[in-house]
Amino acid sequence: MSIIFYNSEYVDSSDVKISPENRSLNYGDGFFESIKIINSKPFNFLAHFHRFTLACKTLKMNNTFSKREIVLIIEKLINKNEIVNGALKMHVSRIEGGKYCPKSSAMYLLISTSKGQNFVLNNKESLCFYNEEVKTKGKLSNIKSANALVSVMSSLFANEKAFSNSILFNSDGNIVETSNSNIFILKNGKLFTPPTSDGCVDGTMRSWVLSQLKVTERTLSISDINNASEIFTTNAINGIISVNKVEGQLFSEFGIANKLQVRLLDLTSIQMGANKKGMP
Question: Vertex 24, ends 21 and 25: CA angle to 5°?
Answer without folding.
Answer: 60
